[in-house]
Specification:
The chain is α/β, with parallel strands linked by helices. The protein has helices spanning about 1-25, 30-45, 45-50, 70-85, 105-115, 125-135, 175-180, 205-220, 230-235, 250-255, 255-265, 270-275, 275-300, and strands spanning about 95-100, 115-120, 140-145, 160-165, 185-195, 245-250, 300-310. The chain has one domain (about 25-310): Rossmann fold, CATH 3.40.50. It has a seven-stranded mixed beta sheet, sandwiched between helices. Helix 1 (about 1-25) crosses helix 13 (about 275-300) and helix 11 packs antiparallel against helix 13 (about 275-300). The longest helix is centred in the N-terminal third of the chain and has 23 residues, at about 1-25. The protein is globular.
Length: about 300
Amino acid sequence: MFELLLYFFLLVFLLLVLFFVWRINARKYISSGTVASAYDSWTQDKLLERLWGEHIHLGFYPLGVRNADFRKAKVQFVHELAKWSGLDKLPKGSRVLDIGCGIGGSSRILAKYYGFNVTGITISPAQVKRARELTPYGLNCNFRVMDALDLKFEDGSFDAVWSVEAGAHMIDKNKFAAEMLRTLRPGGYLAMADWNSRDLRTYPPSFVENLVLKQLLEQWVHPNFISIKDFGDILRTNENSAGEVITDNWNAYTNPSWYDSIFEGIRRPFAILSLGPLAILKSVREIPTILLMNWAFRKGLMEFGVYKCRG
């Protein structure tokens, strides 16, 4: 009996320590610099790359399929969004801007499989460095450090603008939309996917939901979430948006990613162990946030929005 109590108190103590580490290391959004620092850290410790490969974003799982390979699902997501948005109709050599390119996984697919000339931008210098290292010589990809709210490109510079899971880090959603559409040529394609909340004005969050949203914002440097409808309306009312804006919620296709992102640590334990003891703590530290994300998306508090329109 005494041993059981001892184990119980040790378990409680361990959980409290993990919670304390999780909270004191929260990554609150302060400025774009905190976003850059977070992604620099994630890139330099190589944990995400070792576990998830070249893509940080969620994967695409056809309905009814739950045992797809996590990394292949991420690649499939790129192809599905390209097809859904119409980017696959663009001719080879088309100029594509990838906003929030990470370490270049999507950029390389768009260049290799569709023949596009891709420029990837991210606010993280470490991501740009790693993206360049991973890109084979001769592939039409180039990467630059740049703030998506202040794009250093002329109006109409690109035939398509692509952005996956970057908008949630933007404090000014109107400016984000304006910069994307400004750099898109007339008749060009916008393809975007992002993490959104449900319409919180129409369906106010409960006390528990507010607590969850607070953690989702503070743990992964998000300044705010808005609904699919609200961002769709921002795109529709922008002066550079000439075509119909179409939106959808891909929760059903992407939700399996959350559990899979944890299971990768079980499938590939040496990916973590090879990085040393600190990597184990870092990987465990992310699990509560991932579980909260899974809960929020499954309950509909969060939605995976996809957007397409023409310039």
